[in-house]
Amino acid sequence: MSVLEFEILAKDTESHARRGRITLPHGVVETPVFMPVGTQATVKSLTPADLTDDIQASIILGNTYHLMLRPGADIVEKMGGLHQFMAWNRPILTDSGGFQVWSLGDLRKIEADGVRFQSHIDGSRWFLGPKESMEIQRKLGSDIVMAFDECTPYPATYEEARSSMEMSMRWAADCREHLPVNDTQALFGIVQGGMYDDLRRESLHAISDMDFEGIAIGGLSVGEPKEEMLASLDALSDHLPVDKPHYVMGVGTPDDLIEGIDRGIDMFDCVMPSRNARNGTLFTDDGKINIKNLKHQTDSTPIMEDCTCYTCRNFSRAYLRHLYMAKEILSSRLNTLHNLHYYCDLMQRARDAIEGDNWREFRDQFLQRYRNKQS
Fold first, then answer.
1. Torsions phi, psi of 92, nearest 5?
2. By residue range, what is the domain housing residue 367?
3. How far from the centroid of its chain's Cα atoms is residue 350's Cα?
4. C-alpha 363: how far from its chain's center?
5. Same domain, 292 and 162
6. Is 95 one of the catalytic residues?
7. Domain-ending residue, one of 270, 303, 338
8. Which residues of the chain have pLDDT under 50?
């Protein structure tokens, strides 16, 4: 058996939506799936038991950039790898660090073989390229490793987008060389090309030829209008290899996820549900709730009536508003529990809809309700 097995269990006949299953060394991932972000070997404010028992998360993310800076890949390896270090016995995907390095702005300099940068923590100088990223992720021991790439900025000229994409493709080949096919870690290539359809398809063709275990789409949700993001996915939908899992990186809102599933995406991640939770914004089928609003001060209802998360089963909006306004630590914990449970449950509902052959009805009803109501 290869390190990653992917099977399609059901497909919608009038869209690219599909229900699948990924088998990895540390467990099975049912798709479509949302992956909570555990940047520094922790999903902020939550324990692994929260993630498994309440949220039902099957896979989470760690980040190469942050973990290489602290505690350091050598320390994680010495402690038995990321799974043992953070007491998480289900699959882990590690981002390559490319996006974080790109976002450093003046603190980094892109070179032919990688990126030279200063740590945002202490100003120390580092170099990260394809070889280094693969070595760090090997030490972290994640189930899925991401290729090192450059995130094409938005906006970018055609020439800038082409140059960036071509460099990412060279780096992708280097990553495949430094992390060859093995029985412990799957490697995903990343499609780039900015907002240019022909560059996106050219990049996808190059990634497909390198025979990665999965296909990721990067460089989205970087400031472009939602219409352009969806247009980029539309340009790729008919060309994505059907036998590989498809992962769109850093996306996004609940309606983004539904739109992505409709275009053949199997895997999603985003800091939005956890970051917004800490800022008092909660997600429901009726849009976002700002728990800070005065109207929630004496509201005895839960965040969402039919939500089965621990927070909604036990606490009122009034209590959650009190915690937030009082700056209590429990506020972040309860809000994050709800938001991540909501995202993962939404993916379960999407899987059920595809299996039940009523995807289009579910999609249309959800999008209409979510976009037409805001609290």
1. -130, 135
2. 280-372
3. 17
4. 21
5. no
6. yes
7. 270
8. 375
Number of structural domains the chain divides into = 2
Whether residue 143 lies in the annotated active site: no
Q: State phi, psi for 251 to the nearest 5 degrees.
A: -120, 135
264-284 residue pLDDT tens: 999 999 999 999 999 999 999
Do 96 and 183 lie in one domain? The reply is yes
Q: Is 6 helix (H, G, I), strand (E, B) or coil?
A: strand
Give residue-wise pLDDT tens across range 19-35: 999 999 999 999 999 99
Burial of 197 (0-12, 13-18, 19+ CB in 10 A): middle
Q: Which positions ≥6 away from 136 have C-beta within 8 Å?
A: 64, 67, 68, 73, 97
DSSP reduced 3-state for 267: strand
- Identify which of 175, 194, 195, 193 has the alpha carbon closest to the alpha carbon of residue 185: 175
Residues 266 and 293 in one domain: no
In the numeric block, which tokens belong to residue 291?
A: 């728990």
Indicate whether 275 belongs to any domain.
Answer: no
Residue 292's Cα: distance from chain center in Å? 27
- Which residue(s) pair with 37 in the sheet? 61
The one-letter amino acid code at 172 reads A
Cα separation, 353 vs 375, whole angstroms: 26
Let me know if 111 is exposed, middle or buried by CB neighbors in 10 A (0-12, 13-18, 19+).
Answer: exposed
- Report helix, strand or coil for 54: helix
Residues 97 and 187 in one domain: yes
Same domain, 295 and 240: no
Last residue of a domain, one of 239, 270, 301: 270
Catalytic residue among 50, 54, 269, 345, which?
A: 269
Global pTM reads 0.97
Q: Which of 12, 54, 95, 149 is catalytic?
A: 95
Q: Are strands 267-269 and 214-217 parallel, antiparallel or unpaired?
A: unpaired
Q: Tokens in use for 322?
A: 């009190």
Which phi and psi angles does 258 have, rounded to 5°?
Answer: -65, -40
Nearest to 45 by CA among 316, 317, 278: 278
Angle, CA 213 vertex, CA 98 and CA 192 arms, to 5°: 40
